[in-house]
Structure formats: C-alpha cells, structure tokens
Amino acid sequence: MITTTTPSIEGKKIREYKGIVFGEVVAGVDVIKDFTAGLSNFFGGRSSTYEGELIQARQDALREMEDRARDMGANAVVGVDIDYEVLGSNNGMLMVTASGTAVVTD
C-alpha cells in the first residue's frame, strides 16, 4: 500500500475516495524506561529508550491506518498526518495518531 503525506501520487490517478482513516496508538512508558531516560536527561544526550518507543508507536499507528484503509477497499492513503500527544496524570502515556484519506488508484 502506498502511504504518502502528499495529496496525490505521482504517476497514479485517484479513481475513488473511500474516506478518512485513522490509526491510534496509546503506549505507556514503564518505570525502568523512565529511569534510563532520566539518566540521559541528567547526563545529556539522546534518549534511545524514548526514541524506540516513539518509533514503534508511529509504525503501529501507520500500520493500523493502512489496515483500516485496506478494509475499506483502498490501495493507498494520501494526505497522511501524524500527531503526538502525552497523556495521563504524570504524562506517562504517549498517544500517536496517524490520519489520511483512503483512496483507490489505478
């Protein structure tokens, strides 16, 4: 499945618009990951622990969105947007939402 942030796909004609599709993932960050990320914050540098969580959540949200588009009979998703939010009383949850328009191309 072609997934793109652009409103069209070069060399393809959009034949049908199926509708807006979403993929949502809410992931918790456990105490150990929070502790190791805190060390990175204290000593400086990047937090590979949080980066790994973010990458996985984004991939899962995109995959869920593509699966929903496929279920609608689409073979591509255009105009994809990805949003990130932190949730929970201690900001211990990460929400990633992917959205786009499911389409059928030739």
Structural notes for this entry:
This protein has 106 residues and is an alpha+beta fold. Helices cover 35% and strands 40% of the residues. The protein contains two helices and four strands; from the N terminus they run E-E-H-H-E-E. The chain has a four-stranded mixed β-sheet. The longest helix has 24 residues.
Keywords:
4-stranded mixed beta sheet, alpha+beta, 2 helices, 4 strands, 106 residues, elongated, single chain
Short description:
The chain is α+β, with helices and mostly antiparallel strands.
Mean pLDDT: 86
The helix-strand sequence is EEHHEE
Q: Could you give a short account of the major beta sheet?
A: 4 strands, mixed
Please give the order of strands in the largest beta sheet: 1-3-4-2
Record field, number of beta strands: 4
Radius of gyration: 17 Å
For the termini, the CA-CA separation is 12 Å
**Shape, per Cα inertia axes:** elongated
Q: In terms of per-residue confidence, which ranges show pLDDT below 50 for 5 or more consecutive residues?
A: none
Total helical elements: 2
Helix content: 25-40%
Pairing-aware structural class of the strands and helices? Answer: alpha+beta
Q: How would the blueprint of this fold be written?
A:
Elements: E1 2-3, E2 14-28, H1 31-43, H2 48-71, E3 76-87, E4 93-105
Parallel strand pairs: 1-3
Antiparallel strand pairs: 2-4, 3-4
